[in-house]
Design goal:
about 290 residues, alpha/beta, six-stranded mixed sheet, 12 helices, about 10% strand
């Protein structure tokens, strides 16, 4: 029975992956037919926009983790010794997504906005196995200790929210407060996505990202049109006037993700998610017991 369910699960994963790939392929052909000269245009931004070096946001710092050997980049604001507020971004983002929080909370906290494993200036291991959930959980624990803290206010958005949930479950003594934006509790998410086709469709990119190299390629088309659309369109962008991203903000994201290979690490986070569901189930059962 267990083997049959596992077989059905992976059949669903790869079948839907194939559907998503076909849809992406049709969009590619449509783009080539309409604007063949523009479709494959990809501009690498050589220089960072000024906003990424704005001193009011904090100080750019690095920490190397002993166990993994990886070097992590983060931006820190607020005095050392104050309670730590650790910020984990989502996809496709990086530390800059927390720019408003860095300014807002630095008077009361040591605010640290991290570039997750594979993002921005943080090291990006080449193999997808290096992005399993247990590695991501260990990253946050090790970074917390390397910063000289044993607990923090942990805030996560989107994929960073998933990591924040699991850190709080595995190491509750290290989390004084947990704030998660736009990601449900892992047990709710895994059950809901399998039982509700509408959510399965909305989370189709999880399946699309299982493919090698093709998702990265699709992001680069029309000079990262998909990336721009995620932040500016009516469907997925910021709708509230006065809060929308400026042209310089957009350039900050384009600067980071237009670098050669910059999308592979972030997408690798998702390439282990379905095997990671086993870990999530195990962790949640252990926490319940």
């Amino acid at each position: 029975m267990v083997a049959a369910r596992a077989l059905l699960f992976w059949a669903l994963v790869y079948s839907y992956c194939g559907v998503c790939a076909c849809i992406a392929g049709l969009r590619l052909l449509w783009s080539i037919g309409r604007r063949p000269g523009e479709t494959f245009r990809w501009v690498v931004r050589e220089n960072p926009p000024a906003c990424l070096n704005d001193p009011s946001l904090g100080t750019h710092c690095y920490v190397r983790i002993k166990d993994s050997g990886l070097r992590f980049h983060y931006v820190a604001a607020g005095e050392r010794g104050k309670p730590l507020m650790l910020l984990l971004h989502g996809f496709p983002e990086f530390w800059y997504s927390w720019r408003h929080q860095l300014r807002e909370f630095k008077s009361e906290y040591r605010v640290v906005a991290l570039d997750l494993r594979g993002y921005g200036e943080t090291d990006a291991p080449p193999h997808k196995e290096n992005y399993k959930l247990d590695c991501l959980i260990a990253d946050i624990k090790d970074i917390l200790e390397s910063l000289g803290y044993n607990k923090c206010v942990l805030i996560g958005h989107d994929w960073g929210g998933m990591i924040a949930w699991l850190v709080a479950i595995c190491y509750p003594e290290m989390v004084t407060k947990l704030i998660v934006v736009n990601f449900p509790h892992p047990s709710v998410f895994t059950e809901y996505i399998l039982r509700h086709p509408s959510q399965l469709i909305k989370s189709g990119y999880y399946f699309f990202f299982q493919m090698p190299w093709f998702p990265e390629f699709m992001f680069t088309l029309n000079d990262f049109k998909v990336l721009k659309s995620l932040f500016t369109s009516q469907a997925t962008g910021i709708g509230r006037k006065g809060c929308r991203l400026t042209a310089e903000d957009i350039e900050a994201y384009l600067y980071v993700f237009s670098q050669p290979g910059a999308l592979t690490g972030p997408i690798n986070h998702y390439r282990t998610i379905f095997s990671g569901l086993i870990l999530v189930t195990y962790v949640l059962k252990g926490s319940n017991s």
